[in-house]
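[Solved] Which block belongs to which protein?

Original post:
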Amino acid sequence: GINAEYGVSTGWLFTLNIHNIGNFLVFHYLRGSPFGGGDQGEARLLTHWEQINHGKQWTNTRKFLIIFPAILFILCQHYCHYDLEVLLLSTPSFLLQFIPKQPFMHAKRLFGINQY
């Protein structure tokens, strides 16, 4: 099985990084209406995260979507016995999806990426 070949740490690290990268792409990179064109182009410049609850901060939905990846990150560290290598390999992907969720990043585009 996978545990015999790669180990528990590799499985947790792989799962966490795939989740975080996918989370970033879906919520913070893709723009426009996620479920069709019913908005007549009003959301074409907004990411999916910016559209949640019409941009209102700290709603229950947003809190869940912030807390769940943080819990997954903590569980990964715990089950990998707080290994420094796992921490160094998982922190960048965690920050990649965590920082854009903060209110100070609302509607901000770094380095002009995804601006238009």
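(Second protein starts here: sequence line, then its structure tokens.)
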Amino acid sequence: MLILENIPEGTKFGMCAGDFTEVYEKDVNRFNVIAASFFLDTAHNIIGYLELIYRILKPGGHLISLGPLLYHYAGMPDQPSLEITWDDVLSCMKQIGFVIEEESLIENVPYINNSSSMASVLYKCKFFVAQKPLVS
């Protein structure tokens, strides 16, 4: 299990705005960890995201993700959208080469909540930790 308190002081974190597939298309074995919060289902093609993440993780690196499978482009007639079940996502991740270390369903996950508001949106989300093996 990865625990934030165990991250060494001086460790660098980063965030980049832009189209994920374009920003990182030329990178290989660059990151030790990729943390994705409410992110994977923003892809036109979630499999493409997972393949790219696998490529840009260093061997032994981890993908840590939390989010629903709402598929951002679902129902948009002019936008392609691959919408697969969690079981299919899991199967694809294993075929790509990921080793699933942890997986759970977390219910009642808030997203963009305003504590002063009477309204809130809660999601059922998949949390998982997947590793790119040291040897592919």
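Accepted answer:
You had them paired correctly. Confirming on the second one: The mean pLDDT is 90.
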